[in-house]
């Protein structure tokens, strides 16, 4: 079931609120499908963010403008978000988050608009680890992965099983995360690339930094999803 919303993402597509079954809960998502889209990108955000994150929506708009569909989802229910804000007990539960990403990938595979097009995953922070684990579990469906300021190291042994071409984007001033991404790069067996955006911090808030993330992500997905 979906409800049409006012579309703030792209003038060429209609954004819809969608509800995705995931075990005992239902994930809330925003789905945008430009006419003639040849690929769809699933966004998995990290803790303290949501499907309404201005940063993720900025990148989603850039992808919509290139003709890619997008699905932004909240990996935790409102109740779980409230628990996590108090305890921090769920934000690093990568196995749980990955199961939710897998549920969204499966939903895309059943949706009439997206079942016959390639799927990519865009993950930020811990959401990047969840996206990578999900990619290892759905190798026939996920054709490309992009991580923005992510923690791919938290994907653990799943890194060795990832077949999808993977792009790791890290801010040049995000020193600890650079090291974590370099460690993960050594474990990824397939096509991979790491790009450091000079002068950018973890959230890519500096002028032009997020634009560079969007440019890099769009280029990667266009290369592997079309």
Protein architecture, described:
This protein is an alpha/beta fold. The chain is built from 6 helices and 9 strands. It has a single domain, classed as 3-Layer(aba) Sandwich (Rossmann fold). The protein has helices at residues 54-65, 78-87, 94-110, 126-137, 175-187, 209-225; strands at residues 2-4, 15-22, 25-32, 39-44, 69-73, 118-124, 142-148, 166-171, 192-197. Helix 1 (54-65) crosses helix 6 (209-225) and helix 3 packs across helix 4. 49% of the residues are buried.
Question: Helix segment count?
Answer: 6
Based on Cα principal axes, name the global outline.
globular
In spatial order, strands of the major sheet run 1-2-3-5-4-6-7-8-9
For the largest beta-sheet, the strand count, sense and barrel status come to: 9 strands, mixed
CATH architecture: 3-Layer(aba) Sandwich
Uncertain spans, ≥5 residues at pLDDT below 50? 1-11
Q: Multimeric state of these chains?
A: single chain
Strand portion: 15-25%
Terminal CA distance: 28 Å
Radius of gyration: 16 Å
What would the keywords be for this entry?
226 residues; alpha/beta; Rossmann fold; 9-stranded mixed β-sheet; globular; disordered N terminus
Summarize the structure.
With 226 residues, this protein is α/β, with parallel strands linked by helices.
